[in-house]
Amino acid sequence: MKGSMRENGFRAIGGLAQQLATGLAPKGSKGGAGRHGVPLMRLKAEWPAIVGAEIARVSRPEALLAGRGARLAQGSGKKLRLRVAGSASVEIQHMTGRLVERVNAYFGYRFIDGVRLVQGGIVASPPASALPAPDPETARRMAERASAVKDPDLKAALMRLGARIAAGRRCMMLGGLGALLFAREPHAQDLTGEQEKALAVRPGDHVLGKAEAPNLIIDYFSLTCPHCANFAAAVLPRVRKEFVDTGQARFVYRHFPSDSIATHASQLAECAGPEKFFDTIDALFRSQVDWLTSAEPEAEMVRILEKRGMAAGQCLAKDQLLDKIVDDVMTGQTLGVRQTPTLFINGQNCGNPGGIDAIGKILRDIGR
Fold this sequence. Notes:
alpha/beta, five-stranded mixed sheet, three-stranded mixed sheet, globular
């Protein structure tokens, strides 16, 4: 498993990540949908038969990714991008070798060489909703503009496109209005017992600040998340100075790794121990670009931490370190975390509030 994940590391960055993650490419491009689209569609459709109902319930194939310098052709370094429910991500990570074997046996050839996990919700695709009818004035203008088109099929397609654009504009207006009405402060929630427990300091949590501090900030983070790295570098030092060190708030870091590399980074942070946890997280975030762009991200992280005096060489072999990570992920799922960073301030889901000024305003509004 480690070998497959270390082959090329995390290389899908920025806009390229968006193109690769969709599994789509222009028809004329190398490695386009014409080469692998049909097998990928078959893989998605027959996933339960390939891996079994239990695994299929918590995972979905998303795309085929080419290794560095490889084409998306049979047996040429392809990785399967697999979306996995957060609570099952660590368990599935340990099964990636068997998943590769099952997929290749099913297709009868080396269809994939590895699996890249991406954590996220697994939901059934909702049925397509009917487009709402445009208002009379919009319908009249659409009919006028399409009147010169003679082909009835093309005319009908243009009318449907016009209706979709009109509906999209209405949604954008409603969405903007919603943002104006509701973006001012976090929503209050009716909490379950499990959610209330997750919103309190838990045994094993990594906490900054005094136990008697009246306010609590919980941050769900992923070490491969660039926004998390920015928060750690630019915002957290101010949070510590203005709210933690002054006794106004406690700050809790909780793992919510977004991929297998982030999971291993969290393992390394746990391996550092409670006393050096925050320093190790800071070191990994500050060097994020270096190890994310390395050919072997995990090996590079180990090298960086060993230069700081940490005996990190055997940390990734210590599976017991995953217990804390799994527990954090499960609490995040209980609270509805969907992205990183996500901050909960005094029980309110504040998402990524941005800078120190926004956090200060939230604490003034809902502080204790």
